[in-house]
Amino acid sequence: DATNLDAVKIEYRKVTARSSNLGWTPARDVTNEIINFKFEQETIYGIATAIWDISTLPDYEYEVRLKSECMESKENLPLNLRQYYSDPIVGLIDKTPPKLFGVPQPSVNLFPGDPL
Questions:
Q1: With 0-12 CB in 10 A as exposed, 13-18 as middle and 19+ as buried, what is 8?
Q2: Using an 8 Å Cβ cutoff, are 48 and 38 in contact?
Q3: How far apart are CA 82 and CA 23, in angstroms?
Q4: What are 30-60's pLDDT values in tens digits?
Q5: Alpha-carbon torsion (77, 78, 81, 85), positive or negative
Q6: Each residue of 68-111: pLDDT tens digit?
Q7: Looking at the predicted structure, is the pLDDT value of residue 2 above 70?
Q8: Distance between CA atoms of residues 98 and 116, nearest Å
Q9: Following DSSP, what letter does each residue of the chain receive, concatenated?
Q10: Which residues contact residue 60 at a Cβ distance below 8 angstroms, ignoring those fewer than 6 apart?
Q11: What is the CA radius of gyration of the chain?
């Protein structure tokens, strides 16, 4: 029953922000809306997916976590009972396409029985 669940969001920050204790940014989809898994369709296995638009994020290491928000209308409840954060994981955004490195070997096409 998700009647008390208001949102499940993705948040991120650069890994270096951890030492500076900088805040977290909500992830946005391709329409620039904050991703909220509460409104995403689930598979028969209970898995929901969303497309996170990372096109404007620079290549870097990021921490990513989930934040659930429950019963936001019940302001008399302490905040730690209305919000929960998953443990963050670290991921790398690297949008640089791979390049050819070195010279492909062998430099000559060899067939069985050909001399080297």
A1: buried
A2: no
A3: 19
A4: 999 999 998 888 899 989 999 999 999 999 9
A5: positive
A6: 988 766 777 777 778 899 999 999 999 999 888 877 666 677 77
A7: no
A8: 30
A9: --TTEEEEEEEEEETTHHHHTPPPEE-B-TTSPBPBGGGSPB-TTS-B------TTSPSEEEEEEEEEEE-TT-TTS-HHHHEEEPPPEEEEE--PPP---S--SSSS---TT---
A10: 14, 15, 92, 93
A11: 23
Residues in the chain: 116
Cα distance between residue 27 and residue 41, in whole Å = 18
> Is the whole model's pTM more than 0.90, yes or no?
no
CA 95 remoteness from chain centre:
14
Asked if 64 and 35 count as a contact pair (C-beta separation under 8 A), the reply is no
